[in-house]
Write a structure and sequence with these properties.
CATH topology of the largest domain: Thrombin, subunit H
Structural class: mainly beta
Distance between the termini: 43 Å
CATH architecture of the largest domain: Beta Barrel
Number of strands: 31
Shape: elongated
CATH class of the largest domain: Mainly Beta
Radius of gyration: 23 Å
Helix content: 10-25%
């Protein structure tokens, strides 16, 4: 059974377990209660993880068969120097947010201002009278790539894709992009090669060709340490699949970090189907954090996602976030899922509310998460001063698979400047730990309800994530900022 099949079975179990939580409860309906709460819900829209992977595989196969042979050479080559790699991978593992890649200029750049035989890339005719244009990008020292499309303007019969021949494919990117600005970052493809390909359905006239315009002058590269090393292509089923050098868990994490696949904790299990690791570009670097889906009663909006303000806070940044859903090991302490099976990736969000106080960002996703995902319930009752209250978490540190941790509220722990108790929740790690990239991950109470999200660590030895005696884990308190997000979640 594949990793994704196991996760789909897990989603079914969560649906069964969640049946009892189908009704909302308002504070007014419970005498004497002064807080709001919501149960979890199951996402029914969108594709399942299996459907997503199958569609990507078939699209990758179709695009590779149409690709002009001449597009393979010459290729645009991008490389990361040893110094650049070292600068990313030797940065503090406790840095928030965690750096995992860099933005580099493409030399030569890809500039298309009307399609003809003089355009960058290669052009070929299709049997239906349409055309295919493609350009290949090859990586040296990197494990994954995404491209910055600028000044994109495509006619109605044109579709642009980014894919690899190993089974990943994203698009179509059409018109002037989803926000009509002509400026967007593609999703990320793993491996040493990426192909940018444009398809135009026939018949195509001179005006259509002249209307095609876009440029790619920079690319985001994730290092092999975080994305995995691509070692070749081998035939596998419907498509050619990447052969990776998957390493065993802990996947770059500290020894005290616990693989979530090894756990079966009722309070935390729903978060396995709600949590996603995030990857986005800001300035010259690529960063990662974690976040999770939240339930809501909003009749006009939905797909709300909670993370930390210190990760990101603007819609300009949020629109290029990649969300990696159900990214976990296939077995307890198994191999890290770098190239052993593509994750379910969606791209894009907007910011509904964000504030440094409480360290929260509430986003609304542009694209549905996988069908069967869990929208976590939440509870606005304060827990920051409830000593010993048990808290549970699923997060994706080090841009790796899901990990599990339990924390107990500690009201005697010292506080850090700017993080007052009440606005923040201080706790001690009881099982497992968080690490760089865990920031923003929701923390749950014993009823699987969100009561906060990870800010970081406070203590005398924060660079050692296993030193729970010297450090506290600190979350932004949902109760503190609830009135700010209530108009979105429970209007």
């Amino acid at each position: 059974m594949t990793a994704f099949s196991k996760r789909i079975l897990t989603s079914v179990l969560v649906v069964v377990l969640a049946v009892v939580f189908l009704a909302w409860t308002s504070p007014a309906s419970a005498a004497g209660r002064s807080y709001d709460e919501a149960p979890m819900r199951i996402v029914t829209e969108g594709l399942t993880a299996k459907q997503h992977l199958e569609r990507q595989a078939l699209l990758s196969l179709r695009l590779s068969r149409e690709m002009p042979e001449a597009a393979m050479e010459p290729a645009v080559r991008i490389s990361l120097s040893k110094e650049e790699i070292s600068g990313i991978e030797k940065s503090s593992r406790s840095a928030t947010p965690l750096k995992i890649g860099v933005v580099k200029a493409m030399t030569p750049s890809i500039v298309v201002a009307g399609l003809d035989n003089e355009s960058a890339g290669s052009l070929a005719k299709r049997a239906d009278g349409g055309i295919v244009w493609a350009a290949t990008i090859r990586l040296e020292g990197a494990g994954a790539i995404r491209l910055h499309l600028q000044e994109m303007s495509l006619p109605g019969n044109a579709e642009l894709y980014l894919y690899n021949r190993a089974g990943q494919a994203f698009g179509p990117y059409t018109g002037a992009g989803p926000d009509f600005s002509g400026d967007l970052w593609t999703a990320t493809v793993f491996g040493a090669e990426a192909i940018l390909q444009l398809r135009m359905a026939g018949p195509v006239n001179e005006a259509d060709l002249a209307a095609v315009s876009f440029r790619v002058e920079e690319a985001g590269l994730i290092t092999e340490n975080f994305a995995g090393r691509f070692t070749g292509i081998e035939p596998s089923g419907l498509f050619e699949k990447a052969a990776g050098t998957d390493a065993p868990f802990p996947c770059g994490n500290a020894s005290c970090v616990v693989d979530a696949t090894c756990t079966n904790v009722a309070a935390a299990n729903p978060a396995k189907l709600a949590t996603a690791k995030m990857e986005w570009i800001s300035g010259a670097f690529i960063y990662t954090c974690t976040g999770g889906l939240l339930s809501d009663t909003n009749p006009t909006q939905g797909n709300f996602f909670l993370t930390a303000n210190h990760c990101l806070s603007s819609s300009k940044t949020a629109k290029n976030v990649n969300f990696y859903w159900r990214y976990a090991t296939s077995s307890c302490n198994g191999t890290c899922p770098v190239n052993g099976g593509w994750p379910y990736i969606t791209t894009g969000a907007s910011v509904a509310a964000s504030n440094r106080k409480g360290d929260f960002t509430l986003m609304q996703l542009t694209t549905n998460p996988p069908a069967g995902s869990v929208q976590l319930g939440w509870n606005s009752a304060p827990v920051a001063n409830t000593n010993g209250a048990q808290l549970y978490r699923i997060s994706n540190p080090q841009f790796g698979p899901q990990v599990y941790s339990q924390h107990n509220v500690n009201t005697s722990a010292g506080t850090c400047t700017g993080w007052p108790r009440g606005e923040r929740i201080y706790s001690r790690d009881i099982t497992g730990a968080t690490d760089g990239g865990s920031s923003g991950s929701p923390v749950l109470n014993a009823s699987s309800q969100v009561v906060g999200q990870l800010s970081g660590a406070c203590g005398f030895n924060v660079n050692d994530v296993c030193d729970s005696a010297s450090n506290s884990t600190v979350d932004g308190a949902f109760a503190f900022y609830f009135n700010t997000v209530k108009p979105f979640l429970n209007p």
